[in-house]
Amino acid sequence: MIKVFGYLKRKPGLSPQEFAEYYETNHVPLVLSKAFMPTVYKRNYLQRGDAFNVEGDEIAFDCMTELVFADRDDMSAWMSSLGVDEIANDEANFIDRAATRAYVVDEHTSAG
After folding, report:
1. Residue 62, exposed/middle/buried by CB under 10 A (0-12, 13-18, 19+)?
2. pTM recorded for the entire structure
3. How big is the chain by its Cα radius of gyration, in Å?
4. What are the pLDDT digits (tens) for 22-45?
5. What is the DSSP string of 76-101?
C-alpha cells in the first residue's frame, strides 16, 4: 500500500467555500474521467477560524488530499494519467500550484 498526502492552497481571490465547491463539482469529476479511482481519494478541507487551529491564518494549505494506492506501480500509473494539459489547466482555475506539496507517508494505526 502507498499513501500520499497532498497539501493544496486555494488560488488568491477564492473563498474557502468557492475553492471546495470547485474542487468537488468540477475537478474531481474531471480527474476521475481521466484516471481510475484510487483505493482512497479523500479531500479534507481546513476549517479556517477554528480555535483548535493554533497557527491561524499562517496555515499554508486549504485542503489535504489523501490518496491510497495498492502499490507504487498503481500510483505511477495514476500520476501518469493525470499528466494531461486539461488537468493542469483546470487546476489553474482554483489551486495555487506553486504552493502544492505532496508526500508519501508511512501509516501506523493504534488499536483501541
Report:
1. buried
2. 0.90
3. 15
4. 999 999 999 999 999 999 999 999
5. HHHHHHT-SHHHHHHHTTTB-GGG-E
